[in-house]
Automatic annotation (TrEMBL):
Gene3D superfamilies recorded: Cytochrome P450
Top-level lineage group: Bacteria
CDD domains (alphabetical): Cyp158A-like
Family listed: Belongs to the cytochrome P450 family.
Keywords annotated in UniProt: Heme, Iron, Metal-binding, Monooxygenase, Oxidoreductase
Heme found in the keyword field: yes
Protein name per its UniProtKB record: Cytochrome P450
A Pfam family matched in the record: p450
């Protein structure tokens, strides 16, 4: 059977938690537009080349909402991309731009710079607590998960004490195979009710947070959002604002500790922190599902005609290892610049919170290098276990000592 006739099961498992699947290189070179079967059993088309992924992600015609009758379902058990909530935030055109303009004000570089001292204090306190408990610690549970949760909760004005509930609700929204349909529907109902109560409370008494500011703008007639759009924006930001960054913190630190020379180089030259964060984002081989896109019209990609109604999965992680876009793509180069990776997507739908994620990751390295220069993995890198069954990639635990 030729490569073109094979139908791979997607996501393709990694050989080891931090390593890319061997198939990526083969697909990029011989079958860049590949047929795959999703966890739901539905068929989709997988893109692995840099130029192809960038082309589709940057094309405003292609939507991230997979609610069309002929769109592929990611999971048979329900989840973020195929449910009705995904339709509430406008997906394109002037309405999407208006939504983005209202929300992006909270994610500017200037605002991130203002938040940085508070982020640093949170990071220092978390490290102090981990050290008090003694080695070995779990960098994911003790540090990587709570840091972005505290930050996004503060931005949304929700209590960080509820973080375990947020984590569970987020996981069910990002479900591929971990939860049954009844579990995901019940959790999403609880999450919706929680955020509905929170928005109602904010409406009664505005605070200094993103949701209060969206409420203060007024409704659509005033250039603002509907109640439902504000509520779903809160849910979406809470999920996106902690889950991906929490996972990335664990992976980034693991990548750097997996080769001691990388960590020592950073210790010797902390000015490399910014480019190291970018290279960690590019080099991340376990970033999860990638971004699905629905093609409402016939499109040509890499010389292949994709019919209307095709669901495409853009693997940014595979594209970020493309030798045609990055010299020595399979090497982690802490000083790589420029680094036009696609970890945050491309075009009008590129990640809204990328300035926040970058700032958090930079603060993580600044604080760890300063407070725990002797940090090391407490298990061989081969024993790190990936997160299973969710649309985001990560490590289950990151055991460390110092």
């Amino acid at each position: 059977m030729s490569v073109e006739e094979q139908v791979l099961h997607y996501p393709i498992p990694n050989d080891a938690a931090l390593d890319p699947p061997a198939e990526w290189e083969r697909l990029r070179s011989t079958c860049p537009v590949a047929h795959v079967t999703l966890p739901s059993g539905d068929r989709a088309t997988l893109l692995t080349r840099y130029e192809d992924v960038k082309q589709v992600l940057a094309d405003p015609r292609f939507t991230r909402q997979l609610t069309a009758p002929d769109a592929a379902r990611l999971s048979a058990e329900g989840g973020l991309f195929n449910n009705e909530m995904s339709q509430i935030i406008p997906d394109g055109g002037e309405e999407h731009q208006r939504w983005r303009r209202l929300v992006v004000k909270w994610f500017t570089a200037r605002r991130m710079a203002a938040m940085r001292p508070a982020m640093t204090r949170i990071a220092e306190d978390l490290i102090d607590d981990m050290v008090k408990r003694g080695a070995p610690g779990d960098l994911r549970a003790d540090f990587g998960f709570p840091l972005p949760v505290y930050v996004i909760c503060d931005m949304l004005g929700v209590p960080a004490a509820d973080r375990d509930r947020f984590s569970y609700w987020s996981d069910t929204l990002l479900n591929l195979t971990r939860y049954k349909k009844a579990e995901t529907e019940a959790a999403q109902g609880e999450f919706f009710q929680y955020m509905s109560d929170h928005v109602a409370a904010r409406r009664r008494q505005l605070g200094d947070d993103l949701l209060s500011e969206l409420i203060a703008v007024g409704g659509p007639e005033d250039g603002g959002l509907t109640d439902l759009q504000i509520l779903v924006t809160g849910m979406a930001l809470l999920v996106a604002g902690h889950e991906t960054t929490a996972n990335m913190i664990g992976k980034m630190v693991s990548m750097l500790l997996a080769d001691r020379d990388r960590w020592e180089r950073l210790l010797a030259d902390p000015s490399l922190i910014r480019t190291t964060v970018e290279e960690s984002l590019r080099f991340d081989a376990s970033s999860g599902f990638g971004l699905p896109r629905y093609l409402p019209e016939e499109t040509e990609v890499s010389g292949t005609v994709l019919p209307r109604g095709t669901t495409v999965v853009c693997s940014m992680a595979a594209a970020n290892r493309d030798e045609s876009a990055f010299e020595a793509a399979d090497q982690m180069d802490l000083s790589r610049s420029p680094n036009p990776h696609l970890a945050f997507g491309a075009g009008a739908h590129s990640c809204l919170g990328q300035a926040l994620a970058r700032t958090e990751l930079q603060v993580v390295l600044e604080v760890l290098l300063r407070k725990l220069p002797t940090l090391e993995l407490a298990v061989p890198v081969e024993e790190l276990e990936p997160v299973e069954g969710l649309a985001v990639g990560g490590l289950r635990t990151v055991p460390v000592r110092w």
